[in-house]
Amino acid sequence: MIRVETDDGIRIMHMEFGAANALGPTSVAALVDEFKRERVPTVITGEGNIFSAGLNLVETATLDREEMAAFVEDFSILMTLALTTRYPLVAAVNGHAVAGGCVLAMACDHRVGTEGPFKIGMNEMAIGLTLPAVVTEILRGKLTPDKARTVILGGALYAPDDAVGEGLLDETTADHATTVARAVAIARQLGKAPAGFAAMKGSLVAPITERLQHTRAALDIRFIESWFGDTATALRNDVVARLTDAKS
Questions:
Q1: Which of 87-91, 178-182, 229-233 has the lowest mean pLDDT?
Q2: What is the residue range of 173's domain?
Q3: How far apart are CA 235 and CA 248, in angstroms?
Q4: Which end of the chain, C or N, has fewer beta carbons within 10 A?
Q5: How many angstroms separate the CA atoms of 184 and 161, rounded?
Q6: What pLDDT is attached to residue 247?
Q7: How much is the mean pLDDT over the chain?
Q8: Domain of 100: which CATH number?
Q9: Whether 213 contacts 106, CB under 8 Å
Q10: What is the mean pLDDT of residues 181-192?
């Protein structure tokens, strides 16, 4: 599910989950394992024109409340791990990065996007969902207050250049190969002084992880309630039906 290559000490993780690189129980577990495997400067990217389209609705549609709560816990572990890696973690956003895919990129230390007809952003509010605590706090910690409100409450999806303006990307390049090469260069630069990087990164992300401890229980419960609400359930069932029909 994850193809790994090395470029002169830089690990490059290629997410190859299929299904638009959507994040379900299996892919989340695979990412957690890979993040823990080696503590070296790392680039994470997707396949084709998709970084990640967010949660795997086909897999998660069958989960009951207890199972969904367990998945939210695993998802939170993944995002917190990505946020707090003591090594540089750079996202090479090769295409669409929506919802959970956008958050995964935001958890990284730097985000290089690819120019093209791609959409990046958080559309949960537009489909009747609130956000789990880990998502809320990462966005609140990485964006200015005004941008966080716009990105979270607006539910809009942005083209890459506009995503730079909103703070969802740091820069863009012309194509996927150039995006990965640029991300590798940044990871290498950030990793020149490992101990110093780890110490300063820990200080920078500490406010996010501290707020997360206080907001997690309430916001996660609210997210699960919205997930099983009438609006989100109807929209989710419609998407799953269309995906199922497309496969048959």
A1: 229-233
A2: 2-190
A3: 20
A4: C
A5: 21
A6: 66
A7: 95
A8: 3.90.226.10
A9: no
A10: 98
